[in-house]
């Protein structure tokens, strides 16, 4: 069992532990290890916004740029009360590994604003988003750092960001900067299928896992934590593959129906219930503390970080956990799962469909192209299948778990880049 001192208490401690474990396994070059152990830039901005009520409020925004050895910084922006520099550092670091593992010409970044968006009007959110974009200034750019949506941020917000950024440039060059953000609405240069890409990727990884085991997803029962963009689309595609959703948990309630929950009907209900699943009539509401102990074949945590911990990892009955969220399993919980023989398809592989689709959108804008839905989904399948195969090879090569194998593959690609580039001066 691992030393639990200070572990499982923060996302950044978790990600650093995971990195150190993989770096030690491959005897990573000491100098490169030092570089990758800390973010390149940590940006904090405080900016005022005059709200619709006339009140002036000062917001705090963050952008952490972890590493760009492989290309431009890339990562989402989230609006949530848990956003702080520690969380941004952890998420930016994960993005470095995720983009490397996916074989993309990107590095890792992440950020956001510490706020609860439900407390603000749409008009106020537009002002906040545009002012945040202006405050970031040249810390973002289409060839330097490319934000995307994340928790509580939307395609509409990305359109506001892009418009604000482009408005700071010469009118005759405006179109050159459309790819400053990804995840935009299709009509504003966004990509067909970007909304479902992360959830689609989760299911593609599970299909690869099932193929390895010589089984089929059809008839398998699964539980899902989180019913936002990732959770719903994962459930949507799991249904298309014949899997049965037996329990769902979000911030409002935990639902259980051993005979199955229809994700499309649940979405319709939640849409008209202020984005809450509470009160859904076709399932029983249960105590949230029992959620992870429910019988199932597959568990998909697709909400927030540090959800599977020492407190509940021993109760999980699933054969496999597919991490749709970033960092849903802390390091102590992870070791418990390993000891119990429960496989974990790690976040940097399992939920990488979103950043892969963002890459497609970036290319689409950069090259003045229009990609079709079928092209996007096919591209996701190819990229994810390749990444899964490479992680599987590293797992066998090093005799380790899935997460460590994914880190090894990601880190080795960056190490090779540093050795080829050299260190200036």
UniProtKB/TrEMBL annotation:
<dbReference type="InterPro" id="IPR046346">
    <property type="entry name" value="Aminoacid_DH-like_N_sf"/>
</dbReference>
<dbReference type="InterPro" id="IPR006097">
    <property type="entry name" value="Glu/Leu/Phe/Val/Trp_DH_dimer"/>
</dbReference>
<dbReference type="Pfam" id="PF00208">
    <property type="entry name" value="ELFV_dehydrog"/>
</dbReference>
<dbReference type="InterPro" id="IPR036291">
    <property type="entry name" value="NAD(P)-bd_dom_sf"/>
</dbReference>
<protein>
    <recommendedName>
        <fullName>Glutamate dehydrogenase</fullName>
    </recommendedName>
</protein>
<dbReference type="InterPro" id="IPR006096">
    <property type="entry name" value="Glu/Leu/Phe/Val/Trp_DH_C"/>
</dbReference>
<dbReference type="InterPro" id="IPR014362">
    <property type="entry name" value="Glu_DH"/>
</dbReference>
<comment type="similarity">
    <text>Belongs to the Glu/Leu/Phe/Val dehydrogenases family.</text>
</comment>
<dbReference type="InterPro" id="IPR006095">
    <property type="entry name" value="Glu/Leu/Phe/Val/Trp_DH"/>
</dbReference>
<dbReference type="InterPro" id="IPR033922">
    <property type="entry name" value="NAD_bind_Glu_DH"/>
</dbReference>
<feature type="domain" description="Glutamate/phenylalanine/leucine/valine/L-tryptophan dehydrogenase C-terminal">
    <location>
        <begin position="191"/>
        <end position="422"/>
    </location>
</feature>
<dbReference type="InterPro" id="IPR033524">
    <property type="entry name" value="Glu/Leu/Phe/Val_DH_AS"/>
</dbReference>
<dbReference type="Pfam" id="PF02812">
    <property type="entry name" value="ELFV_dehydrog_N"/>
</dbReference>
<keyword id="KW-0560">Oxidoreductase</keyword>
């Amino acid at each position: 069992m691992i030393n639990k001192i200070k572990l499982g208490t923060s996302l950044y401690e978790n990600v650093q532990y995971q990195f150190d474990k993989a770096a030690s396994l491959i005897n990573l070059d000491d100098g490169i290890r030092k570089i990758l152990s800390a973010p390149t830039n940590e940006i904090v901005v405080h900016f005022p916004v005059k709200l619709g009520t006339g009140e002036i409020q000062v917001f705090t925004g963050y952008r952490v740029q972890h590493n760009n050895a492989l290309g431009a910084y890339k990562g989402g922006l989230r609006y949530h009360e848990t956003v702080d520099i520690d969380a941004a550092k952890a998420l930016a670091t994960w993005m470095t590994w995720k983009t490397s593992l996916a074989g993309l010409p990107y590095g890792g970044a992440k950020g956001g604003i510490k706020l609860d968006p439900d407390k603000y009007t749409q008009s106020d959110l537009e002002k906040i988003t545009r002012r945040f974009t202006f405050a970031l200034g040249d810390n973002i750019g289409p060839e330097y750092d490319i934000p995307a949506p994340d928790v509580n941020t939307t395609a509409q917000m990305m359109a506001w960001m892009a418009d604000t950024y482009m408005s700071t440039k010469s009118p005759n060059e405006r179109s050159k900067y459309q790819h400053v953000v990804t995840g935009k609405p299709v009509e504003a240069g966004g990509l067909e299928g970007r909304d479902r890409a992360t959830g689609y990727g989760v299911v593609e990884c599970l299909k690869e896992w099932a193929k390895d085991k010589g089984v089929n997803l059809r008839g398998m029962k699964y539980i899902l934590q989180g019913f936002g963009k990732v959770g719903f689309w994962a459930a949507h595609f799991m249904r298309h593959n014949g899997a049965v959703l037996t329990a769902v948990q979000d911030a409002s309630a935990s639902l259980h129906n051993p005979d199955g929950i229809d994700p499309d009907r649940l979405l319709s209900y939640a849409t008209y219930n202020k984005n809450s699943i509470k009160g859904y009539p076709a399932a029983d509401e249960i105590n949230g503390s029992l959620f992870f102990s429910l019988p199932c074949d597959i568990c998909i945590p697709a909400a927030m970080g540090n959800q599977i911990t020492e407190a509940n990892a021993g109760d999980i009955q699933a054969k496999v956990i597919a991490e749709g969220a970033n960092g849903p399993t802390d390091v102590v919980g992870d070791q418990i799962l390993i000891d119990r023989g429960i496989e974990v398809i790690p976040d940097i592989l399992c939920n990488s469909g979103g950043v892969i689709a963002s890459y497609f959108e970036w290319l689409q804008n950069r090259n003045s192209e229009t990609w079709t839905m079928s092209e996007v989904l096919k591209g996701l399948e190819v990229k994810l299948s390749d990444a899964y195969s490479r992680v599987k090879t590293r797992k066998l090569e090093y005799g380790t778990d899935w997460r460590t194998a994914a880190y090894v593959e990601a880190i080795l690609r960056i190490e090779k880049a540093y050795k080829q580039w050299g260190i200036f001066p």
